[in-house]
Amino acid sequence: MDSTEAQIRELLVKTFHVSERKLAPTSRLFHDLGLDGDDAVEFFDAVEKRFGTDLTTLYRGWREYFGPETPNPWLAAMFGILVAIVTSLAKRVASVIVAFEFALLIGLVTIMVWDGHRLSRRIKPITVGDVVSAVEHGAWPA
Prior knowledge:
- 65% of the residues lie in helices and 0% in strands.
- By secondary structure, the chain is mainly α.
- The protein folds into 2 domains: 4-67 and 124-137, ACP-like (Non-ribosomal Peptide Synthetase Peptidyl Carrier Protein, Chain A); 73-119.
- It is elongated, with a radius of gyration of 21 Å.
- 15% of the residues are buried.
């Protein structure tokens, strides 16, 4: 593999198990390929090491392109409160517990989907083509 794009595609397929069918110059790392958190950091570290690309500008604006690594603290607090309530109800009738746990599950899934939707709308896309361009120019654009 000689071309820059072919090498980047190979890195995504072999290291991050991205399907070859999903890869195109317009494929977005976060939105289409699911690259986020530690995987995104690992990918760009590998790009930097393999090609010597200066990614300083990208790292300065990292939060514009990728979500936070840690879970949403609001969601974690809500989950803790709901677990405490369910635990206290455990001494009551089993049907009440089952109904409450079901409502809890629906609520948590709704919150996670909503937060994920909001996050994906806020994230600026980086495409495979953007990575190829940065490598070919030797640095992430300002």
